[in-house]
Design a protein that fits this description.
This protein is about 75% helix and about 0% strand. The chain is an all-alpha fold. Pfam families: Phage_holin_3_6.
């Protein structure tokens, strides 16, 4: 259903020719550039607004992550202290005849330190490992294809 024309809006004549009546081709190109410029500006502004929202969300996540890491660190320290307290008498009895100079709590702490050092060494080895495939390989290829297409269609 067509809307009735309003007197305050000018009526337009629809033409399917390459150049509308009364407009030269330079005017059309200029209008097209202006429309494209407006389109790009709107997209950039939208991306900017969304990036600010995402940055605020990410900052909140980082703060909560740091708090979580600190809480986890203290929990782990307290668990290790408790484990040391529980295992120290057992280790003291076991080491009494074998190593008289090493108290049980000290042996438990050394054992826990060695376990943590082994885990840290494994993590360092895994961090240094290079990825099997290059990162962002498809994105790099698409960008290269876009560059070639732009050079070709200049």
């Amino acid at each position: 259903m067509a809307e009735p024309s309003r007197p305050d809006q000018p009526t337009r004549k629809i033409s399917f020719s390459a150049t509308p009546e009364g407009v030269n081709s330079r005017g059309t190109v200029g209008e097209m550039k202006q429309a494209l410029s407006g389109f790009v500006a709107a997209r950039v502004e939208l991306a900017s607004i969304e990036a600010k929202e995402a940055a605020g969300f990410a900052a909140s996540k980082v703060v909560h992550g740091v708090i979580l890491a600190l809480c986890g660190f203290f929990i782990w320290c307290l668990v290790l202290a408790g484990l040391t307290g529980v295992l120290a008498p057992i280790a003291g009895k076991w080491l009494a005849d074998k190593v008289a100079w090493l108290p049980g709590w000290c042996a438990v702490i050394f054992a826990l330190a060695i376990i943590h050092a082994i885990v840290a060494l494994i993590c360092v080895i895994l961090i240094r490992k290079k990825p099997a495939a290059p990162l962002f390989e498809l994105t790099r290829q698409e960008l290269e294809n876009d560059k070639q297409w732009l050079r070709k269609n200049k």
